[in-house]
Amino acid sequence: MDARYEPKILALICTYCTYTAADMAGSLRLQYPPNVRVVKLLCTGKVDVLHLLAAFKAGADAVMVSGCEIGDCHFLEGNLRAKERVAHAKQLLAEIGLEPERLEMFHIGASDAPQWAKAVEMMTRRARVLGPSPLRKSEAAATPAEGVAA
Amino acid sequence: MIVAERKPFAEIAQAVAGYRRVLVVGCGTCVAVCLAGGEKEAGILAAQLDLAGQLAGRDQRFATACVERQCDREFLAELDAAAREHDALLSLACGAGVQFLAERHPTLPVLAGLNTTFIGVNQDVGVWDERCRACSDCLLSLTGGVCPVTMCPKGMVNGPCGGAVDGHCETDPERDCAWTVIHARLADSGRLANLEALVPPRDHSRANLPGRQTHAAYLRRYSSHD
Question: For FRET with B79, which of A126, A127, B6, B161 sits at 20 to 30 Å CA-CA?
Fold first, then answer.
């Protein structure tokens, strides 16, 4: 593996739970890898299979979707829909020969900052083991990410 | 509704492998409802093919378009300009739509992305069941609204074959005998006398001639063209 390889991870997270947890992780000065780029959504129910495929096309090494805990969705079932779409997108990735492990769904409550830090650590470790996505266009895309939390 | 399912990805990828610019054409009616070939499915398939092409190091471009119905010329006309800019068209319509698109673009390879499965009904979200074989000789008024041509594996039209066990088909114990269901339905609606009607042997002339029908209101218009 290239020693300079820094995984680029996209996180699509909901504003009500996981984003709040990520925000709290920052306030608590919890340390986690700066490889993750966060996109805040009103609800993970907004996440579409096309968004997930587009993320890999854009060169993401891994993508995480994180919503509220099961039963706690602000919009009742947005996180359940996201869960099914992530499962579907994993099948689509497997069909084209890209490791489905590069994509994962998480459920992290608003008060669970340590869980967010653990999830990012887990996905970063996984992305390092899997190596750079074969869809990365150039090394310029592999510059280290700017973290959302210190 | 016509029900179809997407072909295995590997088969589609192989079919388009030799073409640089491919237009994935969705169909917005039946196959959109059964989540096989609508605008969304065309987008997903194009994205998948795009990624697979990049992984294989191929220089390919996949664009998408979706028309209301590929079985109507007025909608296919919308695609004419876009089709000319592509090396191949990948149609996500039923078999009829694929053929009509190919007929309109005889010099372009038109590829099929779906397997058309049956005429059916929506049982639940994401579940469809076959109900009609388009035999062009409907018996449903006689048979209590249960089609023996579709529901009986032997297609018996004048009563059961005699192989049923406890109301289940001899070909599959999980399956209801169509004629047991028909009998129950007719009994419930007080129409058991229907069973005395004899259905004549089927007219198989359609087996070697694709069907055509003309609406009575348009007969004069089209007969004047002959």
Answer: B6
